[in-house]
Amino acid sequence: MRKYVESLSTDVMRTFCDVVETSSxxxxxxxxxxxxxxxxxxxxxxxxxxxxxLLIRGGTGxxxxxxxxxxxxxxKDILARxxxxxxxxxxxxxxxCPLLRVGTIYSVGFYLLDAYVRKFIKAHPEVKxxxxxxxxxxxxxxxxxxxxxxxxxxxxxKQRSIEIIPFADEELxxxxxxGHRLADRASVAPxxxxxxxxxxxxxxxxxxxxxxxxxRASRVSVDVCMEFDNNDTLKRxxxxxxxxxxxPKGIGQREESLxxxxxxxxxxxxxxxxxxSIIRRRGREHSKAEMLFLRTLRSPI
Length: 301
What we know:
Number of strands: 11
Number of helices: 11
Helix content: 40-55%
CATH architecture of the largest domain: 3-Layer(aba) Sandwich
Low-confidence stretches: none
Radius of gyration: 21 Å
Number of domains: 3
Structural class: alpha/beta
CATH superfamily of the largest domain: Periplasmic binding protein-like II
CATH class of the largest domain: Alpha Beta
CATH topology of the largest domain: D-Maltodextrin-Binding Protein, domain 2
Largest sheet: 7 strands, mixed
Distance between the termini: 51 Å
Shape: globular
């Protein structure tokens, strides 16, 4: 067992961690630029060599077993140490190629930031842009710890050590399966959701906290039946009829065009806005690469 673990590649560990964090073999494959079949084969090989199951596959995605959680924690620690070493070595070597490290939450990275990243890479090939897709709290910790130069998150809380730069406003909409009673509505009021089965983000996710405040302000109570930490798994649950949800407008264009999901605006859409901001450690000097990237984010696409 020890010999096998020591021979593990960081790519396999990173892929496994991505499966655990997204609960999705498909998303992990996309994040690592490999096929879903390759991810399944990697996990199967891990389980065969470890001698027990690491993941439980179900209708709502993949969930780590107790052994899988232990493997995940160890792999994350190894990868974090490796990333820090790479950054430190790069700083010592003083490569001629400037490095910009950006962390983004999944929903913004895949559906909003992608066009800006492509524009920046095309305009500034001399900059090595390292974009990491991860959870909001990990981004904040990494920015404060100097492991990321910039972070892009929703509803960042004000902190003395963090500078917040507004980036984008996203309209939140109700999403439901085509057969739902609200599917044909042109718009909805919060009261239309009263008593509905609700597929929510996890309780500590800032977008979830905002949605909860808005529903409470409207004196609307919903039946939270499932909780997830990412948009893709949440959409899959809504698609199979587990309940409805409230999500950013831009995340479901593909499913909507295929008739798999229905997106319905609120009657007062200006109240249902998700604030997306750029965060950086206050007092840290702007690098040239960072200033160029911020300029790109402020430019039209």
